[in-house]
Amino acid sequence: MIRKNDAMNAQLNLPIRVRDSASLDNFFVGRNEEAVSALNQWLERITTNKILYFYGVVGSGCSHLLQAACQFLSDKNEMTVYVPSSDSSITNEFIAQLSPSTTVCVDDLDAVAGQLNWEESLLELYERLMPSSGRLLFAGSQPPLAIGLKLADLATRLASGEVYRIQALTEGELPHAMRFRAKRRGLELSDEVIHYLLRRVPRNSKAIFDVLDRVDKAAFAKQRRITIPFLQDIEKYDV
Fold first, then answer.
1. Residue 107 pairs with which residues in a beta bridge?
2. Of 13, 48, 98, 149, whose CB has the highest number of CB atoms within 10 Å?
3. C-beta neighbour count of 3 within 10 angstroms
């Protein structure tokens, strides 16, 4: 996702879109109060630190937070770009084109850790952004010093910022998170529906929110209430 104006999109020739449903308002905070508070302060430039780094297991919500950050800044007409490093269509040359005034959100750092060309491009990006108004938001499965970066200079620079672990949802939090997300969409789910869905999806936030999105769309298209018979009628979910 690249936002500020269409000219910037044309110049970079690589529109990367974030999910429409990604927002700070619909992130179930759970045990991540400190990390979310730090992100809010960082986005509002209350803190002077230009680097923020999140890490956590797959499905913990790191990608949601990065995409939500991009959406937040886009709504304020600030130049921002979401870079999912695991996307094979994105190359390190793309990084070199970014303006030093851009807020760059680099997701899935694991996918390029250990690739020297990528690491050199990220280090060069850091050097360009730091004297300017640009900022860096990263996400990976491990902290900067443990994710397998070959360039020690890059690892130490990323570690010099604020680093937070994003805690995955516990079993007890999963139904509360689903109900919270449903209410943000204007949906009311019974306990029976929530437990029915949870028995059929992987136990992480990404999976349950993905299936909730699809159920919502199906219910809207058919103008049906979300009940267990309705769920049994619609197609099986590819989760």
1. 84
2. 149
3. 25
pLDDT digits (tens, 9 = 90+) for 34-68: 999 999 999 999 999 999 999 999 989 999 999 99
What confidence tens digit (pLDDT) does each residue in 148-186 have? Answer: 999 999 999 999 999 999 999 999 999 999 999 889 888
Q: Which domain holds residue 196?
A: 173-233
Number of domains in the chain: 2
Please check whether residue 180 is in contact with residue 28, taking contact to mean a CB–CB distance below 8 angstroms: yes
**How far apart are alpha carbons 137 and 49 in whole angstroms?**
11
Q: State which of 123, 141, 165 marks the end of a domain.
A: 165
Last residue of a domain, one of 149, 165, 181: 165
Same domain, 144 and 189: no
Tell me, yes or no, whether 54 and 127 share the same domain. Answer: yes
Residue type, position 232, single letter: Q
**Cα 20 to Cα 217: distance, rounded to the nearest angstrom:** 13
In a domain, 239, yes or no: no
Q: Tell me the β-bridge partners of 162.
A: 52
Nearest to 79 by CA among 13, 7, 23: 7
Q: What is the pLDDT of residue 186?
A: 86
Contact present, 1 and 67 (Cβ < 8 Å): yes
238 located within any domain = no
